[in-house]
Every structure is written in structure tokens, then in C-alpha cells.
Amino acid sequence: MQRLLDSYRAIPPNSTVRLAKPTSNLFRARDRSDVKGLDVSGLTNVIAVDAEARTADVAGMCTYEDLVAATLPHGLAPLVVPQLKTITLGGAVTGLGIESTSFRNGLPHESVLEMDILTGAGEIVTASPEQHPDLFRTFPNSYGTLGYSTRLRIELEPVTSFVALRHLRFHSLTDLVAAMDRIIETGGLDGEPVDYLDGVVFSADESYLCVGFKTTTPGPVSDYTGQDIYYRSIQHAQGEKHDRLTIHDYLWRWDTDWFWCSRAFGAQNPTIRRFWPRRLRRSSFYWKLVGYDQRFNIADRIEKRNGRPPRERVVQDIEVPIENCERFLSWFLENVPIEPIWLCPLRLRDDDRHAAGWPLYPLRAHHTYVNVGFWSSVPVGPVEGHTNKLIETKVSELDGHKSLYSDSYYPREDFDELYGGETYKAVKKSYDPDSRLFDLYSKAVLRR
Ligand SMILES: Cc1cc2nc3c(=O)[nH]c(=O)nc-3n(C[C@H](O)[C@H](O)[C@H](O)COP(=O)(O)OP(=O)(O)OC[C@H]3O[C@@H](n4cnc5c(N)ncnc54)[C@H](O)[C@@H]3O)c2cc1C
Question: Which atom of ligand 1 has the smallest separation from the CA of 261?
Fold first, then answer.
């Protein structure tokens, strides 16, 4: 903490305060800065796990990989574990995370009991539903524009050694969404309580729900860190397919191939895969390759050499109310040439402590939403961000929201209306009176 505070004080008062952190899962490109950032090197560990109280005290920049490694030996896990190993707890709370437990556990910030935050003013405050509740409520989706969380106390839940999976095949999106809704409304499938739920759409007539059940029953398990690829294992012609994974491999099932995105680097080509070191089959390594591409414009140069136009990056996660999910998916499949698409249902937790809601990412209580994730590129359109703008318009039309970890194009007034406007401004003024941190619009839309 002392190193952090010293580094804050060393930043000239007229310079913007930024994080200096070795990994990131932020997709939008940012301006480079010559000023040294905050030294968070001492804030990467799990401080303590209280197995009896089912809580953990965790430093803000601790990755979920390290966090899960500390909780699993106690038979516990965070209530929501985002799929990519280097996402940090602080990053997932301030930038929103989601996973297959979100239909029953909500989003990562809903299981935070309290957190210490280094505010823009350079003070450390403890925020909770009772202390500094204005900061606590506006922190989720603020992307480090109000302050940086340095310690978080979170709830944990019991997990079992294995997860049994039933992959259900659908030939129509209507049937898929109806089945998803039924599972969430009843909490089960064929009378068995469901613990994990996500899905993948390959096309309008090929989609799947991946339904997971906690189990202690020993038996053989699959391994998708070798030659086999998890998302391909889901596919089948009819009905159901069954599978089993250890809880560790289930939590990281999407990291090995960064969902399906490792395809772009050749990592799914059986010959290349054989020689691709196992320890480098992970999202943080693909991130490095993306970094080279962005720096040297590799993909666009290849397109140009082949006589094709450059491409627009369309890397987004959006949420729509479940009743509009099929409409969004049908529109998307007709208008945006990207597949597969990831689906993950979510509901805010039914928790009286959080009745006041989360103003920077307002979702209706007691209502199911579906997160739709798509991460690829399309040929450029007539104006910059053409396809991203079409998606923003469609999401608003369907009463949805868009995460801000990637490119955004909203005009300022629309943005303020969607992401907490006046409430945000008031809290920003209290905790960052001298604007030492960028504001949310500058970061999310202006790419500062
Ligand atoms: C391709 C892709 C797919 C994704 N898919 C998922 C997904 O499936 N599930 C999911 O849960 N999330 C997903 N995300 C989003 C991810 O959870 C967010 O981008 C998250 O903010 C990343 O956390 P990080 O720790 O890597 O933070 P960084 O990328 O380092 O930073 C993200 C932002 O948070 C701020 N920040 C970081 N740490 C802190 C802190 N301690 N306190 C305050 N502010 C902080 C930074 O200033 C920055 O503005 C995805 C992102 C990408 C790019």
C-alpha cells in the first residue's frame, strides 16, 4: 500500500493517474502516456480465506487464476468466476464480469461485502452498503474513473470436485430461449437443480445450452487443454450430449482457446496445436499476439495484400432482456457475419442489501437478461465503427445494455442516459474533485 501511495504522490498534479499493470483484458485501444502509472505490484495476492465464514479478503489486482487456486482447496469458489484467467477481481468489479453462475449469482460486484478504494483524491476509503454507499453503488462499471479498489472482501460458495454437463442441441432459437427461460424459472432441468448455465449459437439452426451440475461422483473426466477443443466438444446432431470435467477445468474451460478466438492464430489446426506448448494455450498468451497485431497492423496488411478491405473490430458483450433475446440473435445473424456467439443468462441477486441498485449499469430486479458475446471483425463499412454503431442502436431499441470494455461510439447525451449520468457526475465530484482520473466517457468512447 505504501508503494501504491508513493507512486500516486509521484505523479505530477497536472498528469492523469493511470494503472501500471502487466496484464489487461480491455479491448479498446488507449492513448499511450509517458507518465509513470500507479505501482500496484504489491496488490496481487489473496490476503486470507475464511472457510467458515465463506469469505475471502483479496488484493485488488489479484487474478481470478490465483484467487481460485487459493479457494478451491477449501472446496469454495467466488460466486462468479469470469472465464479468462488474468481478469482481476478489481477489474471484474469495476468493469463487470459474467459467467455461467450469473443466472443465480448475478454479477461479481453483487458478492462484494466491502472494498478499500484509492480514490481520485488520493485517499483510501472503505466502501460498503453502509459506508460511502454512493461510491459502493457507482463503482461497478466505473472502469477506474472514481478510484482503484485495493482490497475486496467477497462471498464464496461451496463447489464440488466435478461438474457434470448436459449439452442440449436446438434447431431453432425460439426453442433455445424458451428452454433457457424454463430452466431459470424452475431452477432445474428434468427435476434436477441446475448450477451452471451458458450456451453457444453456431447458426440459426444449430445452437446449444450447456447445463452444468455440481457432483462429487468420481469417474472419468475430459481434458480440453490437449488436442481436443471444448467448444467443438459441445456440437452434436440431435438431442443431448453428456460430459464431465473437474471443477478446475470447468472454471477455465473457455480460457484455453479464449472461447474460440485462438482459431485466428492457428492454434486449433491439429498440426500447429501439437507443437503449440500447452502452457501457452491460454488467453493471456493470445492477448500478446493481439498486441503485436495492433502495434504492427498485421491483419490489415494481410487483407490488403489479398485485395480485401481492412476490417472493423467487433468485440462486444451486450445484455438484452430475455424476451428480446431471440429478436436480437436473429437480427445479428442476418446482419453481422460473426459466429459462434456466446450466451450467458443473468439475473440480479435477490438481496435486500442491494435494493438501491447499480446506477452505472441499471438492470431490472427480478428479471432475466441474456448476455450475448461476439468477438471478431467484419469488413469495414461506409463510416468508422459502422457495424458497432448498428449494434449499439439495436441494443438500445431492445431495452438492452452494452459493456464498456471495448469500442463504443455513443454520443455524449445518449451515453449519460445509459450509464448513470447525473448520479455518476455527483459521485465523481466528491471522490475525484480535481479530475485526477479520466471520466467514463473519455475512457469508454474517447479511448483515453
Ligand atoms: C474478448 C473479451 C471477452 C470478455 N469476456 C468476458 C467474459 O466472458 N466474462 C467476463 O466476466 N468478462 C469478460 N470480459 C470483460 C472483462 O471482465 C473486463 O474487461 C474486466 O474489466 C477486465 O479486468 P482486468 O482485470 O483484466 O482489467 P484491465 O483490463 O486491466 O482494466 C479494465 C479497466 O478496469 C480498470 N481497473 C482495473 N483494475 C481495477 C481496480 N482494481 N479498481 C478499479 N479499476 C480497475 C482499469 O483502469 C480499466 O479501465 C471480456 C473482455 C474481452 C476483451
Answer: 1
